[in-house]
Amino acid sequence: MTAIVTPILEPPHAKQVILAMAGPSDETAPSIRAFAREIGLPVERTRSVLLWLQRQGLVSYGPSPADGGGIHTYRLTAEGARLQSKLEGAHA
After folding, report:
1. How far is CA 83 from CA 33, 44, 52, in A?
2. pLDDT tens column, 44-86
3. How far apart are CA 51 and CA 48, in angstroms?
4. I want to staple 22 with a disulfide (CB 3.0 to 4.6 A). Which of 26, 62, 63, 82 is the partner?
5. Using alpha carbons only, how large is the chain's radius of gyration in Å?
6. Could you tell me which residues are beta bridge partners of residue 63?
7. How far apart, in whole angstroms, are the C-alpha atoms of residue 6 and residue 23?
8. Nearest alpha carbon to residue 65 among 17, 23, 21, 20
9. Which residues fall within 8 angstroms of residue 19, CB to CB, at 6 or more apart?
10. In which band, very low, low, confident or very high, does the pLDDT at 8 lie, cut at 50, 70 and 90?
11. How far apart are alpha carbons 48 and 26 in whole angstroms?
12. Cβ-contact 46, 32 below 8 angstroms
């Protein structure tokens, strides 16, 4: 059995972003602008946090399967989805 280690979520709002992100198996994921609006953060701050999470291997950027790959979006990786589940459990 593998233990999930919670990384230090250094940037402010990283936890908020992870909790609101679409997972790897979700059909759709919003654009950065729409996502930022949904979570109440400026687009620039949201983009900064997403790039940091991507460097940590928790978020990926690529084509959205729901629209045939025409739009690229950020979504959680499998590791990011495990962290999201762990964080959600901590809030329960």
Report:
1. 24, 24, 15
2. 999 999 999 999 999 999 877 666 666 788 999 999 999 999 9
3. 5
4. 26
5. 13
6. 72
7. 17
8. 23
9. 84, 87, 88, 91
10. low
11. 23
12. yes
Q: What is the SS3 assignment for the chain?
A: CCCCCCCCCCCCCHHHHHHHCCCCCCCCCCCHHHHHHHHCCCHHHHHHHHHHHHHCCCEEEEECHHHCCCCEEEEECHHHHHHHHHHHHHHC
Cα 7 to Cα 26, 59, 63, distances in angstroms = 23, 13, 26
Angle value at C-alpha 92, between 13 and 10, nearest 5 degrees: 20
Which residue from 55, 52, 60, 53 is spatially nearest to 78, judged by alpha carbons? 60
